[in-house]
Write a structure and sequence with these properties.
The complex is a heterodimer of chains A (172) and B (165).
Chain A lengths: L8 E6 L3 H8 L8 E6 L4 H11 L6 E4 L8 H18 L3 E6 L1 H12 L3 E5 L10 H6 L5 E4 L2 H5 L13 E2 L5
Parallel strand pairs in A: 1-2, 1-4, 2-3, 4-5, 5-6, 6-7
Chain B lengths: L1 E4 L7 H13 L5 E4 L14 E3 L4 H10 L2 E5 L2 H10 L3 E4 L12 H9 L5 E3 L6 H14 L11 H12 L2
Parallel strand pairs in B: 1-2, 1-4, 2-3, 4-5, 5-6
The chains are: A alpha/beta (172), B alpha/beta (165).
InterPro entries (chain B): Glyco_trans_28_C
Organism (chain B): Pseudohalioglobus sediminis
Protein name (chain B): Glycosyl transferase family 28 C-terminal domain-containing protein
Amino acid sequence: MGSDLHKKRVLAVSSSGGHWVQLMRFRPAFDGCDVAYMTTEPGCREEVLTYATERSLPTPRFYRTVIANRWNKLAQIRVVFDVLRVIVRERPDVVISTGSSLGFFALRIGKLFSAKTLWIDSIANAEQLSFSGQQILKHADVCLTQWPEVAEGDGQRYKPDDRRPEYWGAVI
Amino acid sequence: MIFLSVGSELPFSRLVKAVDEWGRENSELDIVAQVGKLSEQDYVPLHSEHHDFVDPTKYSQLAEASVLMIAHAGMGSIISAMTIGKPLVIMPRRAELREATTDHQCATAKKFEGKEGIFVAWDESEIGQAISNALEYAKQAQFKRAEKFAPEDFIRRIRSFIVEA
């Protein structure tokens, strides 16, 4: 793996379940970087540790926070504090997320600390960007959809001046 | 064994009930179900072993041991079935029934319907037929597991983004 990546600090963030499964599918992109993960399920730790061992990579750091949906304001406040704490500690060069609101907060706060931010909207959102994806669209350095038709829009979804998500391919 | 899962966010009684009742009539296969945190109005399976949640390791073990997976139309379930190489029956959650916040699972199901080894039940009335089709398919088909990681080109572009940061 290229030595050009050695100094890059990557923070990869997602809620557990489908978002995490998708994040795991492109993690070889982080090989050789200084990697930290943040998610909501403690059981995910083993998966990233095993991968690092198998590939003789440095042990990634692992942070966990609570599950917060868009109606649970108290949990959201907790998530914001946890994300802030992690970003202050990690000072990532890059923050990457597949969703959902946890990833939104990580990209917004990462941006405040001058990280480059990449949002990869879940492949589940085949007709329009997710709620979090729509919110992050104008803030992320790059916002991807995994469906070409969502990137192209249908002529009505995006106004001429609106920023559009890009399509680079899909995790599967 | 059939492995049923509904994800960790919300219960999905309509699917759990349909599969549990199918299991009562078709007892030759055991059902192991992950049903979420049930509240009073949710259906409790009577004919299936069930767990609120299973951790990722247990999830993989159950999926590997199954002959068929049944799930809500979530991407975690779809990708897991494709990489483990199991046939999968999916039923989408519906926003109007308060099973999800949006109808994105219907969009997902539309996109993945007809893909190798994936069978869609659009509602609970189609579960029995979808399971029969999937089990028939499982007998005949040699499963090709999907790659463990995303296509190389996708990974390369993300890597370039990181390098240039």
